[in-house]
Records
---
Amino acid sequence: MISIRRVDTADPIVRHGIDLMISECFVPSDWTDLKLPRVRRDYGAWWVAYVDKKPVGFVSVVGASKVPNAGYLHLVGVVPSARGHGLQKRMTKKVEEYAREKGWKRVVSDTVNTNVASMRSFIACGFRPFTPDEKWAATYAVYWTKSL
């Protein structure tokens, strides 16, 4: 059984679970010379996906600082053993629901230009590549936007 629940990252057990998933999702060898994503668990809204009560994925969103009236999908990951079942898409929908509740007009994000799986997931969720007025990620990033 799959469930996706909003979580409180002030809870040390939740933080530890997210840290474990991040270390499993973002393996340094996958990033070669790229830096691992900077993780801020102390702000924004977070959700965790569970399969049979085991945490297998996470997503976070914050107000976008570089794009007006938008949410920034800050970080999303699904552990390798749970990939291929649409969890990233389902978690992205939670972010979109939250963004609508906040009154934001769109959601933006970025991916590493080699992360084909995430790019395909964004496209399947209705996101499109765009060029922001002010870039916030590395030169090898692809920027994504979806109007709500």
---
Amino acid sequence: MHLVSLFQWLNDSAVSVWLREGEWPFPIIETIHILGLGLSVGTIMWVDLRLMGWVTRQHRVSAIVGPLEPWAMAGFAVMFVSGLLLFIAEPVKCFTTLSFQLKAIMLVLTGLNVWYFHAKVYPGVAAWDEAPSAPWQAKMVGAASMFLWFGIIIAGRWTAYL
């Protein structure tokens, strides 16, 4: 089955129509999505800023990552579920819109960045945990994360207004 046909079928489904055309579902889900974004990205930004050495340099990196990571994951779970519902509400629009396609690519790149951090950078944190300046790989992860999340937010807002 061609993807456009699949998304058109989903777009015409009763659930999609209800989510899209009902008075309350879409605005409530979008509000929850933005609250999840604030929780997740807000906590991720603190980690990124610490990795880049811009804030809380007097605190160990592990003291920042450890307590904030569960909050970031919870916010991401809220964003993921609500984002999936928003996608179900407008699958054809999302699939055919450049801004959504860019957002999807950046989400994948963000996931790869998180994987790289946890697989390659963070395992060696003991060597640089208390240093005010992290190694270049950690700074790169933080900068890439901030760049990608700002891009995701911009692309998401761009998609919403098309």
---
Amino acid sequence: MREVFPIVPATSGPVITFGLSTLVLLLILLLAANAPSIIFGIVALVVFAILLLLSSFAYASRHVKFEVSSEGLAIRGDIYGRRLPAVSLLPGEAVAMDLTERPQYRPVLRTNGAGLPGYGSGWFRLANGDRALIFVTDKRRVVSLPTRGGYSVLLSLAEPAKFLEALRQMIKNM
């Protein structure tokens, strides 16, 4: 049996960031219009790539899904999404938390990820020094799921209790 849990949709921060970045990048492209064609082509390619990346994060901030099954956890809808096999997870140690009340679990250093206003995804270091793969929009509704790989997965969920129950069912079915 599979259960799908959506991420808490982000506020307008990622969309506003995308919009402002688009304006700045289009201005850069406009300024490069008088440059030699090879320079303009390179600038246009870089601008397009950045806009594509930013748009994917703005979209993901409202559409990431977490799928729990006997096979493990699948994170879909973000470039950092992946499948985590059930044997690599420690669902018995998973906890729901409010990051504003537990600052030691707050992401502080992005090592390979996106940190937009209202949305963080990818690899981060936490305030306590631990590594984490995060998909966080709402710091007040987060589930921390430790793994056997030496890192935790932090997920913003509208219904953390239901997600934790699905993880516990996964243990029973293993």
